[in-house]
Amino acid sequence: MRATTAERLSVVLVETLCPLYSQSANRFFAVPIPPAPCTERCSGASFLRNLRKKIMEADRYLDEAEARQLYADGDSAHDFDHVLRVTHLATYIASREGGDVTVVRLAALLHDVSISGAGRRAHHLAAADFAGELLHSRGLGTKRTASVVHCIEAHRFRNRTVQPATLEAQCLYDADKLDSIGAIGVARVFAYAGAHNSRLWTESWRAVPPIEQKPAGAEYTPVHEYVYKLQRILATLHTATARTLGERRHTFMATFFDQLDAEMRGLA
After folding, report:
1. Total tally of structural domains belonging to the chain
2. Does a structural domain hold residue 215?
3. What is the pLDDT of residues 171-207, one digit of tens each?
4. Which range, of 7-11, 127-131, 159-163, averages the lowest pLDDT?
5. Tens digits of per-residue pLDDT, 242-252?
6. CA distance 28 to 22
7. What CATH number has the domain bearing residue 264?
8. What is the pTM of this model?
9. Sign of CA dihedral 108, 152, 169, 178
10. What are phi and psi of 215, to 5 degrees?
11. How far apart are CA 201 and CA 68, in angstroms?
12. Taking a C-beta distance cutoff of 8 angstroms, is the pair 249, 179 a contact?
């Protein structure tokens, strides 16, 4: 029988959590996993069964195939590929940190839903309202639905009026921000720049002016986004699991923009 998406994700997650499969996990998540006692390694089958149940529970309310249909209008930086990466990361972080996997998974699948007329600045609030109505209508339950809504309301970096007040909200925030840094973050910021006809580079990241003087339009480059947002993300992560992942991504990103500066200036 062909494995479902939920089952394949379960296998990836249990491999990450069970050092018996650390080689595979390292390739997927790019983080070293220390050795563990045999008793911990051998608990993988039980963990897999429990995690599979949690993911299948979330799928009763919204699965990946249905969620994909909600993102037909997403841009290249906020498409369903981004949503899937965030969902997988958020599920992984929640499982490591002891959060409610069902709440986190549903919040991740719905966190960037495009609502007509909302715009990017208020998309989190519109998506939260949509998620609340959808999940309430499907019988998720008042408390869990409210938890999903809070997760989505609190996932923004630029608008932190609503702070992640629960572990589940912290898991979603961290997963979404991890997808903004590292190699993926670099790829996304250049994809966004290309889609908006921005220049690739105008000045070294070390010469970027204070945010009050940030350039606009085509002069706002991926380098400016790195300075004003991406390099600041690591310090905002809440969970130990996300910080471990974030440190390597942050280091890679810093090296990339140093190399970009050198090449643009003809020094490399």
Report:
1. 1
2. yes
3. 999 999 999 999 999 999 999 999 999 999 999 999 9
4. 7-11
5. 999 999 999 99
6. 10
7. 1.20.58.1910
8. 0.83
9. positive
10. -70, 165
11. 34
12. no
